[in-house]
Amino acid sequence: MSRNPDKSGTAKTATNKTTPNKTGASKAGQSIEAALEKALDPLATALKRATTRPAPAVATPPAAPGKPGLAVSPLAVPFPIIPPIGGVEMATARAGFYKHERDDLVVFRFARGTTCAGVFTRHKVGSAPVDWCRRHLDAEDGGKDVRALVVNAGCANAFTGKPGADAARRTASEVAKRFGCRQRDVMLASTGVIGVLLDDRKIATRLGDIEARLDADVHPTEQWAAAGRGIMTTDTFPKGSYAEAEIEGYKVRIAGIAKGSGMIAPDMATMLAFIVTDAAIAPPVLRALLGLHVRTTFNSVTVDGDTSTNDTCLLFATGASGAPRIGRVGDRRLKSFSAALDKVMLDLAHQLVRDGEGATKFVKVTVDGAASPASARKLAKSIADSPLVKTAIAGQDANWGRIVMAVGKTDEPVDRDHLAIRFGPHQAAIDGAVAPTYDEAKMTAYMKQSEIDITVDVGAGRASATVWTCDLTKGYIEINGDYRS
C-alpha cells in the first residue's frame, strides 16, 4: 500500500542451513549425504530440510528488510515452502528508494502466453502504476500475453501527475526491451510515500543485475521469500502462501505474496498482492475468479480503516502445468482451483492483519442475523474499524458496550431487544441486556489470548458476514508518527 505521510501497504520459512551432524559422522559420510541431497527433487529437498531443521531461517532475517527498528509482529507466521512453479522467475535488487540497506526492487519474468487479471483500488487518487495496469488489462486482448511484473517499494508514484505517468511508461519500456516484449505486457506496482515522483533511472540501472539473478540457481522458496521482503514497507515479516489444486487430473500450483501493515481497508483489492499459478486460464476467467474471492478475503480485512491509493492484486497464469486450458467462466473443472485460490487469498489477507502496525491481537468479527449480506458486512466493518473497540481489545477489556455503540451507529436494521454478543465461547449480552451467565473473570482470561473471536447477532434477519481486524495500540501511533523520518 502507499502513504503520505503514511504508507502504502506471513510467514512458514525455508532455510539454507544444514542441520549439525549430531552423530559425529565422518567427513566422507557428510560429502555423500550432501551429494545425495543435491540430487533429490527440489521439493523433496525442501521437505526434508523443513522436517530436520530446528527453526526456519527466512521468517526473521538478520537485517530487517522493512523499516529499521521495528520488532517482528508477535502474530507473525512462518513463510511457506513453495515448490517450483513453471513459467515464472523472480529476482530482487537494491534500487536505492530507501536510505538504509535493503532490496526494494522486485521483478518477475513470465513465460510467453502467460495470462493476467487484476483488481485495483477505487480510491479517487489512484497511482500511476494502478492507472498503467488497469488501462492495459482493460484493453482489447488485455492480459493475454503478460511477460513481466516490476514492483518497487519506497515510492508510491501516486499524486505525481503526468511526470509520474511518464516514469511508469519509461520503466515498462526499459523492461520490455530487455525481455523482448511490448510495453503493455509489463505490469507495474509501487508502494511507499505518496506525492514523491518515481526516479525510474534507479530501476533502469539495476535491470542488468536483475536479469543475471533471474537466471541464477536459487531455490523457489528463497526467491519467493526474497520477493516478499523486497516489497515490504512497515511490514515486519514477508507474507506468502501456497496451495495445490487439480484440473482434469493435472496437479496445478498456486503461490502468492502480499504486503501491507497500515493504511489497510481495501476497496476492490489489497495493498499489494501477486499470485501466480501454472494453470492455463483465460484472462476473463481470471477476472471472474478474482472478483468472486476478493470480497471475502482482501476486502474483508481492516487495520485502520484507511484505503490506499496503490491497492493492487494481480493474478498470473503461466499454463506450464500441462493442464487443459480453461476458457469459460462457468467451467466445472475450476472447482478445485477456485477453492485453492480462495485459500491462498484468505491466508494472505489474514497475514496483513497479523502484521497490522503495532498489533498484538488477531480479531475475527462475525455478524449474524442481519437483514442482508451487505448489511452484515457493513455492521461487521463498523465494529472492526471502531477505535474504541480496538483499543478496548488492546487493553484486554471485553467492553461489549463499545460493540453495541459500533452496531447502533450504523443505519442498518438492528433489533435492540434481540441483540446478542459473544467473546469466543463466553456470552456477554443476550436479548438486549447483560447475559445472566456473564462471568468477568472468565471474560478477562479470554481477552488475554492473542486471537479473539467476537460474534454479534443483531436479530434482524438471517444474513451473516465476517471481517478480520487487529487491536489498536500505542505502537500504531509511534510507527505512523515518524513514518517519513
TrEMBL record:
Residues 1-30 are annotated as: Disordered. The record marks 191-192 as: Involved in the stabilization of negative charge on the oxyanion by the formation of the oxyanion hole. Residues 10-25 have a biased composition (Low complexity). It holds the Pfam family ArgJ. One of its GO terms (molecular function) is L-glutamate N-acetyltransferase activity, acting on acetyl-L-ornithine as donor. Keywords: Acyltransferase, Amino-acid biosynthesis, Arginine biosynthesis, Autocatalytic cleavage, Cytoplasm, Multifunctional enzyme, Transferase. Pathway: Amino-acid biosynthesis; L-arginine biosynthesis; L-ornithine and N-acetyl-L-glutamate from L-glutamate and N(2)-acetyl-L-ornithine (cyclic): step 1/1; Amino-acid biosynthesis; L-arginine biosynthesis; N(2)-acetyl-L-ornithine from L-glutamate: step 1/4. It is found in: Cytoplasm. Its main location: cytoplasm. The record marks 269-270 as: Cleavage. CDD domains: OAT. It comes from the Bacteria. Gene3D superfamilies: ArgJ beta chain, C-terminal domain (3.10.20.340), L-amino peptidase D-ALA esterase/amidase (3.60.70.12). Signal peptide: none annotated. Its EC number is 2.3.1.35, 2.3.1.1. Substrate binds at residues 233, 259, 270, 357, 480, 485. It catalyses: L-glutamate + acetyl-CoA = N-acetyl-L-glutamate + CoA + H(+); N(2)-acetyl-L-ornithine + L-glutamate = N-acetyl-L-glutamate + L-ornithine. It is an enzyme of class 2 (transferase). PANTHER family: ARGININE BIOSYNTHESIS BIFUNCTIONAL PROTEIN ARGJ, ARGININE BIOSYNTHESIS BIFUNCTIONAL PROTEIN ARGJ, MITOCHONDRIAL. Belongs to the ArgJ family. Catalyzes two activities which are involved in the cyclic version of arginine biosynthesis: the synthesis of N-acetylglutamate from glutamate and acetyl-CoA as the acetyl donor, and of ornithine by transacetylation between N(2)-acetylornithine and glutamate. This is Arginine biosynthesis bifunctional protein ArgJ. It comes from Brevundimonas vitisensis. The gene is argJ.
